[in-house]
Specification:
This protein has 1 helix and 20 strands. The strands form 4 sheets. Strands 3, 9, 10, 12, 13, 14, 17 and 18 form an 8-stranded antiparallel sheet that branches. An 8-stranded antiparallel sheet has the order 4-5-6-7-20-16-15-11, with no helix packed on it. The protein is mostly beta strands and 263 residues long. A hairpin with a 5-residue loop joins strand 15 and strand 16.
Length: 263
């Protein structure tokens, strides 16, 4: 499971390669800064979505990180923001991201850890998410369990609060922020492949569930018209529960571990 520096598409990036492709990347993804890559796990920071004054999902996901360390199956990167990246967010910080491939019995695992340190002299607040794109057999084959009874805000209904009943299934566009989600227990079950993804998180109170469905897929230039059928996003997040406030010198951390169990 090597870490590879990939300079294809004219952009340097790190790719963690395993024996099979378990994460989705659009065939029409635009690999040209400052465009964010449509796939993998974009790091949304210091803002998730439009929960603040910045552009969609903040600026970390389309800013170059420096490579601090790499091994055969891990990499650690850092973004050192000085406070002039966006005039609407004049707060310096260091954002460190570590990714690690591993094994739990016969099941491959992917762990991603993020840490934000306030290097400035003023309090900073942020929202954030790990915008994880899962590759699936077909959207009609999947169900997400572990969210029964959890309150969510529906972005397609003006942020209306609702309560999940049973598994989440997909027969139309879904764009929800689930609030106060348990750190373990969320699963994607794919009846087409027989596989299960387990999603474990820490430090992120919320979780976003998203599939753009037909109309929105067709409206995105960096996404195929039919690709909504082969992907699903579940994103550990600091979002609907409110922003996190970080005092000068303070560090916040969060993580996710994904476990893939084949049929």
């Amino acid at each position: 499971m090597p870490v590879v520096v990939d300079e294809s598409n004219g952009m340097e990036k790190l790719v963690l390669k395993s024996e099979q492709d378990l994460m989705f990347t659009s065939k029409q993804a635009i690999f040209k800064p400052p465009k964010a890559i449509r796939g993998g796990v974009p790091v949304c920071f210091p803002q998730f979505g439009q929960l603040g004054p910045l552009g969609q999902h903040g600026f970390a996901r389309n800013t170059k990180f420096d490579l601090l360390q790499e091994t055969a199956d891990s990499a650690t990167l850092v973004l050192k923001a000085v406070g002039d990246e966006d005039e609407k967010y004049p707060y310096p910080f260091e954002l460190t991201v570590r990714v690690q491939l591993g094994q739990q019995g016969n099941a491959p695992t992917f762990t991603q850890e993020v840490a934000a340190n306030n290097t400035g002299s003023e309090e900073m607040s942020f929202t954030a998410a790990l915008h994880t794109y899962f590759k699936i057999s077909a959207i009609g084959n999947v169900a997400v369990s572990g969210l029964d009874g959890v309150t969510y805000t529906d972005s397609l209904q003006g942020g209306q609060r609702m309560q999940q009943s049973g598994d989440v299934i997909f027969d139309q566009e879904v764009d929800r922020i689930y609030l106060a989600v348990p750190d373990s227990g969320v699963q994607i079950s794919d009846s087409g492949s027989g596989a299960v993804f387990e999603v474990h998180k820490a430090g992120f109170p919320d979780a976003v569930v998203w599939n753009p469905w037909v109309a929105k897929a067709q409206a995105m230039a960096d996404f195929g018209d039919e690709e909504h059928k082969e992907m699903l996003c579940i994103e550990p997040a600091v979002a609907g529960s409110g922003p996190y406030k970080l005092a000068p010198g303070e560090t916040w951390s969060g993580s996710q571990t994904l476990v893939y169990k084949a049929a």
